[in-house]
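Q: Can I see a sequence and its folded structure?
A: Here is a first one.
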Amino acid sequence: GVGHAGGESLFRVLEALRARGYVLSLVSRIREVERAQLPAVEAVCKTVITVPHHRDMAGPPFLAVVHSYLLFRRALCRALRELQPDLLHVETTQTAAIALGLPRPPASFRTQDVNWFLVEQERDRAQKGRRLGLTVLRLLVKRIEIDLLRRHQMVVAISEGDRRLLAPYIPESQLLMVPLAPSIQGSHGQADLPDSGPIILFVGAMGRRYNQEGVRWFLDAVWPLISAAEPEAKFVVVGSHPPEWLLLRGDDEHVIVKGFVEDLAPWYRSARVFVSPLLTAGGLLQKIMDAMAMEVPVVATSVCNHGIAATPGVHLLTADRDVDFAGAVIELLRNEEKRQRLAREAHRFVLTHYDFEAAMDRWDGALRRLLDGSKRESTG
């Protein structure tokens, strides 16, 4: 596999497109730590062009970001000129912005997040003094984002929640939903954990602000309630780039911070409950999908269910207040029958609603119709 979560999901998309007869070329920014994964990508892509990610570049952070994206635009321009692709597919809003003005073939765009929805969530939680600024920012981001999306002949939403957000602005014939699918591969490894006590698990890249915000809220407001009721419970955080404040909160006994791990499957298997306490979320949270596929019962904030669209109380438990979130976790720790029932229903839900091959077949058909239409226009 190639990384976790979004990286693993995108790699599966590349494999599936290649299996359906597409010849792929990839232009991407890359972290130095990701170079070990390049051979796997090069095995499915005819051409791979990379430029340095800003986090690995010297100089002031803002200038590093600008420099990285300028290099990316230059590489993309060269690839479009030299490779002459029949179709351009774009991932992320930043990439769509970087590609503005470049001569290009018909293009598709796949959402990772609807950014104005993220700003909206922050605005709704903000103190009164910040709300006006965030309201203006939301309007600006929404206008820019919709304009970028409309420059593509096809827009692919990764969740039903995102599709509903985009539907008023994108013609139905150009809007397709191709959801992510579970990315965890089975393994027989064991998690490096103490033997005693139920495990409450969170998985997420801890360099990301929204993950930090959610874990901090959980540790400050929710975990003390759980720990008081279940003294043997352990909260385990798995994810790359844990910040210093989180490492300091870990005690290797009740709060365990593991950082990046190669194989996530043993950690999911070890968990009694999976938590997703994010206060701001969008897209389709891969970590929840993986937990449900691994039959780990999930407790999440309501916004974490935005993309998945599971039924609260049937496929997962949702709670937004600290006392309610803690109560849901404690109930699952103590009620094995409910825990197992929720896990079974979650697993069934994922199998029923997130068939990756069926979704890729739909995308394949839409891409071929787009290409056929483009060829007819060019020969007409």
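Q: Show me another, different protein.
A: A second, unrelated one:
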Amino acid sequence: MNETLPRAAIRAAKTNLVWLALPLIAFGIAVAWILSTDPLSGFRNGAPPVENLTFERTVLDDSGLRLLVRGGGSEPMTVAQVQVDDAYWQFTQDPPGPIARGQAAWLSLPFPWMLGEAHALKVVTNTGATFAHDIAVAVPTPQATPGQLRLQALVGILVGIVPVAVGLMFYPVLRGVGASGMAFLLSLTIGLLAFLLVDASAEALELASEAAAIFQGPVMVVLAGLGSFLLLMAIGRRGGVPTGLALATYIALGIGLHNLGEGLAIGAAFAAGSAGLGTFLVAGFALHNVTEGIGIAAPILKQRPSLWAFVGLTLLAGGPAVLGMWLGSLATSAQWSALALAVGAGAILQVIVEVGAYLMRQSGKRIDVFLTPPVMSGLAAGVAFMYVTAAVVKI
């Protein structure tokens, strides 16, 4: 009897394996037949293949200009000519040869670009298809020198770390608030996070539309956002619902991922030659981020965290702005910026859920707490403040 059971289990496992393999084998045979016989050849009418080319980066230096392009056509495409301001220029391609779907290549031209001037580029393929790209303001692309990295780190500190630290400095004053004041502060946190969620999602979708079609930008944004939300929810609830310092840490993480996206925007502004706009963004984002420190402090007002805990929260929330500055000005593409913002949006959504749950537990009124005057005024104040300060940085 004991020997019969293992044998029956082995036979059942083998049977399941066969039934699992059969559809995969059938599918493989079908794909191999399609590739070998090309049954759709009768539908071809001699039209050229569909071609698409996305410009991901533009680098201007003493040797001329370089373009990072990515192919997205139905078949490998060959770059035949490159025009700059309606004149053809010699170019080199790395790697050489046809650009396959999803493959990236650098096009280098010894073009004597003019500082502060606008230039119009056009890439022509061997089929005659053209793809245009504009350089709005020609300025040298920042290089990864120690001095440049230090300057960008300083800007990132001013944008991310300093405002969060200033907001956390209100902690001693906020400790004296009562139950209504605590409800107001928690709902204020939800309001500012809700604005950041909408803002990050909109920016991510806008950047995704500029990425190569192969990345499926909008789908990538949605999947990355949902993935980060579910992952952080699972991690956060692993040891029970987060409260106190743990909840403040998740708030700082969500804000930090959003500040990574803000750093990317400022770095890209400097790299594109918008130095004045970049300075404007620095001042605007610094003002915009002051309330983030208050939101981080709200869950820990009934505790006495150590000084190092405040330092860690500040660096977690503001430090990613430095990394974003470096990536935005030195080496970033639309799809990676969109991905970073989408992950940040998912993290912010997780924090909104947790802070909302914490607020309901604190009040004991469950969902009805969101209809109380302190909470409704806090939500409105958070969204309104972020909206007004965001208007400062929108051009």
